[in-house]
Amino acid sequence: MKDKRMPAVVVVETGKRGDWNTLDIRDVPMPSLEPGEVLVRVEACSVNRADLLQRRGFYPPPPGASSILGLDFAGEIAEAAEGVAGWEPGDRVFGITAGGGYGRYVSVAANHLVPIPDRLDYVQAAAVAEVFFTAHLNLFIEASMQAGESLLVHGGGSGVGTAAIQLAKAAGIQVIVTAGTADKVRRCLDLGADYGINYRTEDFASQVMQITGGKGVDVVLDWIGASYLERHIDILKTRGRLVIIGLMGGTRTEINLPPLLTKRLRIIGSVLRSQSGQEKALLVQSFRDQVLPLLEAGRVHPVIDRVYSVHNAEEAHQAMREGLYFGKIVLSWSEKEKVQQGE
Ligand SMILES: NC(=O)c1ccc[n+]([C@@H]2O[C@H](COP(=O)([O-])OP(=O)(O)OC[C@H]3O[C@@H](n4cnc5c(N)ncnc54)[C@H](OP(=O)(O)O)[C@@H]3O)[C@@H](O)[C@H]2O)c1
To answer: Which residue has the higher pLDDT, 221 or 339?
Structure first.
């Protein structure tokens, strides 16, 4: 692998933190193949909100990870390190990585990969890993959700939101979503959500209390953080769980603590990217056991709004900045640019 090079979408840095550094395709060294890893020839990867932060210098990769953007990918195994069992060159796989998904090749721990179900192509598979792993991890492992419980998900039209709606419904959970437009609310309902709230025109907390007859919800999946924290504590039922996975609405706030005690609430913070290799391997196994059969049967599916050629990564990021999409934005190495409204 030494001295071999590959194309990758790279961030051309201005050196000033916060700038929207430009994206370009450049030749970079191929990733090395360490024991226990496989080298995947990437056909498609997805755009995640974290990529926009990293591009501006706000979300550096964890130590040891590639500095190339990209948290997930789908492609074909090009090579497996000696002693790796269960994978062969040519196998179609998708998975997560702490960095490097925007490269033509990525090296990944063999136990972080998932076989692509026959019904999915590379573009569809690339839209699965980061958001379905995140939804599965936070709803079912962190928050231990059970059938018959209720969930509030903000931004139901996001990548994680569309995954969470489907996984929760498949598990017999009542789902309330928020979204920023009437059209997104409607599309969340079409995807299976039980109730939708336009957070720009209505107060989500009073709507949740009205919908639940004053009871509140068991779990909130939240990436808004500070600006919603007090309202989340108010709308959680006794023994409710608030899982915070992002901080789009700020990092600091002051809250009234007594309900935390009297309702015996749990506030859980969670990040997938910086978990250890062992923790990720356990998550991948849990995903393979519980979510892969749903994907194979078509009971849940990735929701893709747009597919861009990697040569148009800049436009793909611009589309995410504008927020005018429902589900996922995908970058493809082989497809011509196309915009798919819907799935
Ligand atoms: N901790 C982790 O391991 C982890 C992993 C993956 C993702 N995340 C985080 O999870 C979030 C979702 O990821 P994604 O890639 O699916 O993001 P995304 O597609 O960029 O979606 C962000 C969503 O947030 C919604 N939103 C923004 N402000 C809101 C507000 N004030 N109230 C309610 N909703 C609001 C938007 O809704 P509208 O467009 O309808 O306005 C949009 O749907 C991001 O913050 C991401 O960083 C965390």
So the answer is: 221
Cβ of 174 below 6 Å from ligand 1: no
What is the residue with the minimal CA distance to atom 34 of ligand 1? 155
Residue range 28-61, pLDDT digits in tens: 999 999 999 999 999 999 999 999 999 999 988 9
Q: Which two tokens stand for residue 11?
A: 């961030």
Contact 78, 40 (CB under 8 A): yes
CATH homologous superfamily of 132-269: NAD(P)-binding Rossmann-like Domain (3.40.50.720)
CA of 46 relative to ligand 1 center, distance in Å = 15
Give the contacts of 140 (CB within 8 A, at least 6 positions apart). Answer: 167, 171, 286, 290
Helix (H) or strand (E) holding 134, with range, is helix 129-136
Q: Is the CB of 248 under 6 A from ligand 1?
A: yes
Class of domain 5-128+274-339: alpha beta
Q: Are 107 and 44 in contact (CB under 8 A)?
A: no
Does ligand 1 lie within 6 Å of residue 50's CB atom?
yes
- Which band of pLDDT confidence, cut at 50, 70 and 90, is reported for residue 127? very high
Ligand 1 centre from 223 Cα, in Å?
A: 6
Tell whether ligand 1 has an atom less than 6 A from the beta carbon of residue 130.
Answer: yes
Query: Which sequence spans correspond to the domains of the chain?
Result: 5-128+274-339, 132-269
Q: Measured in angstroms, how far is the CA atom of residue 152 from the centroid of ligand 1?
A: 13
pLDDT at position 13 is: 84
Q: Read off the pLDDT of each residue in 292-298 and give the average, rounded to a whole number.
A: 98
